[in-house]
Amino acid sequence: MTMNTTTLYQHGTLALLVPGLLTGTLPMRTLLAHGDTGIGTGEGLDGELIILDGKPYQVNSDGKVTVVGDDFTLPFANSHFADYRPLLTVENATREEVHDQVLALTHGANTFFSIMVTGTFTDVKTRAVAKSSRPFKSLAETAENQSIFTRDTVKGTLLGYYSPQIFDGVAVGGYHDHFLDDDHTFGGHLLGCGRVTGEVQVQIFDTLEQHLPVDDTDYQQHDFSQDDIMGDLHQAEG
Hints:
One of its GO terms (biological process) is acetoin biosynthetic process. This protein is of the alpha+beta class. It has helices at residues 28-32, 95-106, 139-143, 217-221, 229-237, and strands spanning 7-11, 26-27, 37-42, 46-52, 55-59, 65-67, 73-74, 76-80, 85-93, 112-129, 146-163, 174-181, 187-192, 196-205, 207-211. The strands form three sheets. A seven-stranded mixed beta sheet has the order 6-5-4-3-8-1-15.
């Protein structure tokens, strides 16, 4: 089978999480059929996921890292088949400096791309949300029940996606980064880090394949005009 390395697959949208449409509407086996690399979250915002080399690692609200099974379901996720190209080497760079350099070198502000940064990170701060159950609350309410994890110095991988601002709400306009350490004992949604020394790779996509949960009645019947999508998203993802 020829793997399409120029397409980014996305199930769901970040906007649907805002009112609490947190039902898992895609099994992991289907997500992995569309890529061996990615990020996402489980039903009820069950932790943070990072997929590397075809293995879906979940960081739960206790900080435990496990590989989830094919039946694990997700309300939102991205995946793609990895075909990164080296872009630059950084030394003691901030995450913001890395982000800015990647945009400057790729001229990619108006397209989707993925970055992978491998190396040594300082002052790393991640988070994972505790799984909620039905009836689901809003994203803002659910995200309040999160755990914060920190490491002074850690070797690992930053896996991120960049989305153009015109797609803000479908995804995060700008960068959305997750992190996993080399020992697979620490990670989550990356809230911040101090400095990074390592290698930066990039993969640019010319196609977004957007998959929607049309079999989910709650999604189909919801009126998004009543939601503060941008405000709640930026607060929760910050």
